[in-house]
Specification:
The complex is a heterodimer of chains A (85) and B (488).
Chain A (H helix, E strand, L loop, with lengths): L10 H16 L34 H5 L5 E2 L2 E2 L9
Antiparallel strand pairs in A: 1-2
Chain B lengths: L9 H10 L4 H19 L2 E4 L1 H17 L9 E5 L26 H8 L3 E6 L33 H8 L5 E6 L5 H7 L2 E4 L19 E6 L2 H11 L29 E5 H4 L6 H16 L3 E5 L4 H19 L18 H12 L2 H14 L5 H24 L2 E5 L15 H5 L6 H5 L4 E9 L2 E8 L5 H15 L10
Parallel strand pairs in B: 2-3, 2-4, 7-8, 7-9
Antiparallel strand pairs in B: 1-3, 4-6, 5-6, 5-10, 9-11, 10-11
Classes of the chains: A mainly alpha (85), B alpha/beta (488).
């Protein structure tokens, strides 16, 4: 599923019930005519700022891996995503 | 004597520190002793940071001796568990981040450290700041210092409770739909959400990026104002941070309300579910402001009834995207031995996220999914425009908007956890300020059934000084002082 959250038995009904209640409330938006209304994604007017494209100090490899649940050879370890051939 | 030091405001404490009557170490010790006595009941803190406070208090005392003390020198500070502090475990109230020690410090926190504040610890909150009661914490619920059987509000309930209980002089929170103002109201302290962009969000664990703002809790409007001014301003690390000078929030803020027009939105005044005791406290507050020379006018925010619906699309949509990073690969909890990467994601997130977070991630994923995007997310963004226009129109007729912060006082623990929508309605008077990017404050304005009521003041974007001016005038004229709860 898209949310990438595992469910336990019974969860599906539990969340389906709650989410339909919330969606029912949300459906009131359909009462509004918004045909000519522009969407707001960013609420204050702030001009985009660009920075110089120059190298800056960043985390060391050690710092970046310090919180890793599993690390091997200086990398994050994850289950293999390809079958061995 | 030591307990008395936990009742002070920044102004009072700073005077004693500079006179040399007390040291920063004394001030910190007084707070730590109070925490040791009371926090077993209140449970405002998730963890304490003695290694930080010892160093910072020493440094504060050194600077006091040298006579170059910065504005918050020695002031005890509590930090919500969503703000990263280098080397200090930061978990967003979630099991999924248990053990995470950030490699950097949030700009807002770093600025308060530079101003001399002393960090006592990390405060509890609803998981990923999603909730209005702090019951969604992945660790334990926090209790309201005024009645331990009731919630402190949320999501920044730990920060509000810490300040209310005299366990910290100031605290930081984050406000996405009311998460600073609502707990401030329920705990009887001052809490302020700035204009979107006023305070850098760098180092804030993101919930809904277009709505989130960091702000202070304090025991007086002056303290909130000074704290906010010190954490505001441009930060190259947050592209949405404004280059306006932080100090402008203090402009003219002591000038009183004489000649100001204060708008009372009829949709807020008569909002569904507002308690009679809350309403009479607001009426009394309006009367105080009138005697100070303000003109109170009725205004209208006609799309108020759609605010909650728009919010509960936009916030979950942004959260589902922001929380995708918790995949068990780079930090936090992980099912490292899962048979494949998909199982690793599913199991890590099933075990790591609590039910409110799961609910919102599912809702947000649904609202953004192909085929539903226009009907939900785009529609909500258009309604957001209508809500912002409502405020623009209202501010043509008044300088600031005044209402209750929360329709109710603090409610009993467990009373709203079964029905998510009833919990969401706690924020019905605050979330409009987030959708429109406005600055807002909650100040204590008396009690209903013995529990604190908060007065909300909203201003136009970048009008923090106007908001603070109204709040300060009310605080001064009403004589309603922010009190420290006795707890036990």
């Amino acid at each position: 599923m898209l949310a990438r959250i595992g469910l336990e038995p019974g969860d599906e009904e539990f969340y389906a019930g709650q989410l339909s209640g919330i969606l029912e409330h949300i459906d009131r938006l359909q009462q509004l005519d918004t045909e000519d209304i522009p969407p707001t994604a960013q609420v204050v007017e702030i001009a985009s700022r660009l920075r110089e494209d120059e190298s800056r100090p960043s985390l060391t490899q050690e710092e970046a891996l310090a919180n890793a649940p599993a690390a091997v050879n200086g990398s994050f370890r994850v289950p293999s995503i390809q079958e061995e051939t | 004597m030591t307990d008395d030091l936990t009742q002070l405001t920044i102004k009072e404490a700073s005077r004693l520190l500079r006179l040399g009557s007390i040291s920063a170490a004394d001030l910190v010790t007084a707070h730590v002793q109070r925490i040791e006595r009371l926090d077993q009941h209140v449970k405002a803190f998730l963890r304490f940071t003695p290694e930080v406070w010892e160093k910072q208090a020493d440094e504060a005392d050194r600077r006091l001796r040298q006579g170059d003390a910065p504005p918050l020198c020695g002031i005890p500070l509590a930090v919500k568990d969503v703000l990263c502090v280098r080397g200090v475990e930061t978990t967003a109230g979630s099991q999924i981040l248990k053990g995470f020690r950030p490699p950097y410090t949030a700009t807002a926190v770093a600025r308060l450290f530079e101003a001399g504040a002393v960090m006592l610890g990390v405060t509890n909150c609803d998981e990923f700041a999603m909730g209005s009661s702090t019951e969604n914490s992945g660790y334990f619920p926090t209790r309201n210092p005024w009645d331990l059987e009731r919630v402190p509000g949320g999501s920044s309930g730990g920060s509000a409770a810490a300040v209310a209980a005299g366990e910290a002089m100031i605290a930081l929170g984050s406000d996405t739909g009311g998460s600073i103002r609502q707990p401030a109201a329920l705990c009887g302290v001052v809490g302020m959400k700035p204009t979107y962009g006023r305070v850098s969000r760098y180092g804030l664990i993101a919930f809904a990026s277009s709505l989130d703002q960091i702000g202070p809790f304090a025991r007086s409007v002056d303290d909130a104002a000074i704290t906010l001014s010190l954490m505001s301003g441009l930060d190259p690390l947050d592209a949405t941070s404004s280059d306006r000078a932080g100090m402008e929030v203090l402009n003219n803020f002591g000038a009183g309300v004489k000649g100001m027009r204060l708008g009372v939105p009829r949709e807020y005044y008569d909002v569904k579910g507002i308690e009679p005791g809350v309403k009479s406290a607001i009426d009394a507050a309006l009367a105080v402001l009138r005697t100070q020379g303000a003109e109170v006018v009725e205004v209208s925010l006609p799309h108020t009834d759609y605010g909650l619906a728009a919010y509960y699309i936009i916030a979950p949509a942004e959260c589902s995207s922001n929380l995708a990073r918790f995949d068990g690969v780079r930090y936090g909890m992980s099912e490292v031995d899962a048979p494949n990467i998909t199982e690793q994601y599913l199991e890590t997130r099933r075990k790591g996220f609590g039910s409110e977070v799961r609910r919102r991630v599912m809702l947000g994923t649904y609202a953004l999914s192909s085929g539903y995007y226009d009907a939900y997310y785009l529609k909500a963004q258009k309604v957001r425009t209508l809500i912002k226009r409502d405020f623009d129109e209202a501010f043509k007729q008044c300088d600031a908007i005044v209402s209750a912060t929360s329709p109710t006082v603090a409610f009993p623990i467990g009373s709203k956890t079964q029905n998510p929508l009833s919990m969401y309605l706690c924020d019905v008077l605050t979330l409009g300020g987030n959708l429109a990017g406005l600055p807002g404050i909650s100040v204590p304005c008396g009690t209903s059934h013995g529990l604190p009521v908060g007065l909300q003041v909203l201003g136009p974007q970048w009008g923090e000084n106007v908001v603070l001016r109204v709040a300060r005038s009310y605080e001064e004229a009403s004589g309603v002082k922010t009190q420290v709860a006795d707890v036990v």
